[in-house]
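--- STAGE predict ---
source: upstream dedup step, 1 unique chain passed
mode: sequence only
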Amino acid sequence: MSYRGIETYEVARAREPRHGTRGNATIVFAPGLLDEESWNAVNAFFPAVEGRLQDPWITNFDTGEAYGEAALPVEILPGTRVSGMCYGDNIGTVSQRMNLIIEFIDPDGVSRGTAEHGFSYVSPGGFLVQHTEIITLDKAGMWKLHAMLE
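--- STAGE serialize ---
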């Protein structure tokens, strides 16, 4: 997905979970978009980035399994330790100052395991990569791996 701005929308994939059983924690990738006008309203110093989020992964630290975007959403047993990651690509034609933030959003809407790359200059065709902190899925329901590129 290509865009200019910060990722903030949430979209659950329409596929059925491929692993696990009912009552588990289900994880989906939820990238988002903040339009350029809104970005400029909150950030007067830097223009909106021209970038793309891609290749989200979930790693299950209890089993060693990893799930790419094609396997999402995935159901995982509550009590399991997991981490998420994602790439943020510069699809523009010039170097850009970019930041990648990634987090899990639990079923109650609470941010968990948030990690931030920090602003860096990224060359055209270059990328940032960021992993969440390792968290324990302590609730059944829909969890979101949410990424923001700014």
